Amino acid sequence: MFNLAIPEMLFGKVEIDGAPGYETVICAPDPGPVPTTGGLDLLVPHGLDAVSGADTVVLAGSGSYTDPDPRILTALRGAAADGSRIASICTGAFALAEAGLLDGRAATTYWAYRSLLAARHPTVDLQDDVLYVQDGAVLTSSGYAAGIDLCLHVIRTDYGAAVANTVARLALVAPVRPGGQTQFTQTPLPPERGASFAATRAWAMEHLDEPLGLTDLARHAGVSVRTLSRRFHAETGVSPLQWLLHQRVERAKELLETTALPMDGVARASGLGTGDSLRRHLLGRTGLTPSAYRSSFNRLPGAATALPAAGPAEPAATAGPFRAS
Length: 325
Hints:
42% of the residues lie in helices and 12% in strands. The protein is an alpha/beta fold. Among the domains are: 181 residues, Rossmann fold; 39 residues. A 4-stranded mixed β-sheet has the order 6-7-11-10, with helices on both faces. The chain has a two-stranded antiparallel sheet with strand order 1-2. The longest helix is centred in the last third of the chain and has 19 residues.
């Protein structure tokens, strides 16, 4: 139930110029009541014919991951042949692998079943310790809440970072996190494991352009620097300064996508200091210079010339509404 609710909720929160960014359709091999591992029946109104013509097909994990319905495999192969983007959440990767869509591709799944997927499908380039993986038009996520990160990544790909982060705020989840794809990052943040410093992290996100240090974070959290460092790492998997750097690079990427600020302005607004520092950190994380990143990902027909007072402006829609099944 949770895996299925993730894409429906997040795609449903995308709004571009007052119109839905996606049309989301839930379907199953047999329309009608469908039992879930949550103990409830889900009423699904559409059959697998809804997959035909979908821009994106998202397969949720289920209890029957080792023996997927042949009709689902046929629908997946047909969607792939039609050029649809295809994604799986959790153990949904087993059906993608059974359909032959992961042969020779990088992929991931729920950590507890990675060894089983590797044994059953040795041609899959299985990735460990990542939230999600994109290889061409096929995406896979690890277990449970990593599906949120995958869906936010899809939204960011379609509509830009500002829209994706707006959806994350509306859903009260973490901002867009990189999934571990080497072309975009080499050090993805691990999933958060606690919330005692959530308010301090939120405060820091609002002050990234300021010279924040350990003392500032500790003062806001009301703890010693030593306690901050220990507990912050326990919650996030990284040190406070590593977390700050990651968020600053992500903010810089968002500004490069959504504004026409000069490079020094992007560096100052994201807290990276100088254009040289921006270039060094962005090149290290993405393999692209700031200019190359902006050329590749800036989506504005006419970019803004100043940093908006209430956060980055939403970019113009690239297309839509997208149809997801």
